[in-house]
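Example for tutorial group B:
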């Protein structure tokens, strides 16, 4: 990394920048930008600020020509990378496996996976509606909802109709809360959602529908609700409630959610970075 900043310093003083240098800077800038997008609206942002200060210090030391400080800061970054590789070897392996498969392989498997996932939801939601069992299912999109997930019980389970029905079974510990879906996983259940404060909501709507609307107002999540009184299936998005969904409409909605995996499912890189910095946050809180 010190060599990188040395090159930048030489470019600034000499003014000799070729096309390779421009490509190099563009790639590094793009990677940093993507990392910043991952950190946006998360607790890990203050950790990133600390790392940014170290990078800035390394750049200044390298540019001025302070060899001892440059060596010390470079050693910190080198050791940090080794620690991350050792601690998060499974996640890194998964990341490279995903890169190795590529989009071409994903395009063949995605269709079958989508159909299977949609069928699991269809089976569970239709049976819950037929039995008039209340349900509240949140599909996480781009907006980070870690605080909502933390309010419930972590499951991190595969999506299955049986598990969904069991969670919402009356008189069970988690049946009154919301289930959070992140990509192809059930992240948590029994979660608390913010209630909508919209004064124009129909008076006949209960707490589940108000929670669904509140969640859709505070994030871009898509929420599916099953009424406990009528068995009616509804969906909420962007503060709007769409009621009386039939099987065709429900299937179309679920298929749309899972037809864009890059938006609805977090990548292995995202999970790796979040896991690294969530551990940093836990250590900070303990201190």
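The residue assignment follows.
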């Amino acid at each position: 990394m010190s060599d990188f900043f040395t090159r930048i310093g030489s470019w600034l003083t000499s003014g000799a920048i070729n096309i390779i240098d421009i490509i190099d800077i563009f790639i590094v800038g793009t990677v940093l930008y993507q990392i910043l997008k991952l950190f946006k609206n998360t607790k890990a942002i203050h950790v990133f600020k600390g790392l940014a200060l170290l990078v800035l210090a390394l750049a200044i030391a390298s540019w001025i020509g302070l060899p001892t400080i440059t060596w010390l800061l470079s050693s910190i970054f080198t050791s940090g990378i080794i620690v991350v590789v050792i601690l998060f070897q499974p996640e890194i392996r998964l990341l490279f496996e995903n890169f190795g498969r590529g989009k071409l392989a994903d395009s063949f498997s995605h269709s079958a996976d989508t159909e299977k996932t949609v069928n699991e939801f269809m089976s569970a939601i239709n049976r819950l509606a037929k039995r008039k069992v209340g349900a509240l299912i949140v599909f996480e999109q781009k907006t980070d909802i870690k605080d909502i997930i933390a309010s419930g019980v972590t499951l991190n389970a595969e999506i299955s109709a049986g598990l969904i029905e069991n969670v919402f079974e009356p008189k069970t510990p988690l049946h009154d809360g919301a289930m959070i879906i992140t990509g192809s996983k059930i992240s948590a259940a029994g979660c608390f959602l913010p209630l909508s404060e919209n004064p124009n909501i129909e008076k006949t709507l209960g707490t589940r529908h108000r929670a669904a609307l509140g969640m859709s107002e505070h994030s871009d999540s898509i929420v599916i609700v099953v009424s406990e009184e009528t068995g009616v299936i509804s969906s909420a998005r962007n503060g709007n409630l769409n009621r009386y969904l039939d099987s065709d409409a429900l299937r179309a909605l679920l298929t749309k959610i899972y037809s864009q995996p890059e938006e609805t499912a977090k990548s292995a890189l995202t999970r790796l970075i979040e896991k690294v910095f969530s551990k940093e946050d836990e250590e900070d809180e303990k201190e």
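The chain has a mean pLDDT of 78. Compare this with the pattern of hydrophobic and polar residues in the output above.
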